[in-house]
Design goal:
Strand content: 25-35%
Distance between the termini: 56 Å
Strand order of the largest sheet: 1-2-3-4-5
Number of strands: 9
């Protein structure tokens, strides 16, 4: 009986949302955010209820006839409620149209997390980045003794192939870190 070929994750094609783009001086790896339908639906419904309740609280705060203690209580409620609602809106925006962009060139590694064009960028000089690798379904690298992870919607196979392409182009990034590893992740939202 003939043996069947070994099918591994590394043989599967890269998803279009995480192709490695060649740049004149480096690589650019855009990765779409993971879209979780149940979470998107829940956050949408929750934010609608949040907006209604926040508007009622704001109305009572500014136009209500209550005294100072009641208004201070409403203000104490409204401030964290608003901050939490804005954070949830950011998570929803990231799930709907978010992406991570990893750019690697001779100057270093940069990671941008954005949704609808608004986001935050972290940059690390080349000499501080070591141990670039695939860690399960994520891309990981060490910076000053801390492990950074990126790639919210990668598969194990695509993470491995991306890491191989990066290391083939920038072999110095594969060097082991001389620092004891600590787990430390940058924020995933802008």
């Amino acid at each position: 009986m003939p043996e069947e070929p070994d099918s591994t994750l590394a043989d599967l094609p890269l998803p279009p949302s995480s192709l490695v783009e060649e740049l004149p001086g480096g690589l650019r790896i855009p990765m779409q955010a993971r879209r979780v339908g149940c979470t998107i639906g829940f956050l949408t419904m929750w934010l609608m209820a949040w907006a209604v309740s926040a508007s009622f609280i704001a109305r009572d705060l500014f136009f209500g006839g209550e005294g100072l203690p009641e208004r201070l209580l409403l203000l104490a409620w409204l401030l964290p409620w608003t901050a939490f609602g804005v954070a949830c809106a950011g998570v929803l925006a990231f799930m709907l149209n978010g992406r991570e962009i990893l750019t690697i060139d001779g100057n270093g590694v940069s990671r941008r997390v954005e949704a609808f064009g608004v986001g935050r960028t972290w940059q690390w000089p080349t000499g501080e980045v070591t141990s670039f690798r695939a860690s399960g379904a994520f891309l990981s690298f060490d910076v000053r003794g801390k492990t950074m992870r990126t790639g919210t919607d990668l598969t194990e196979g695509s993470a491995k192939r991306i890491a191989e392409k990066v290391i083939a182009r920038f072999p110095g990034l594969a060097e082991e870190s001389s620092h004891p590893l600590e787990m430390g992740y940058p924020p995933t939202m802008p």
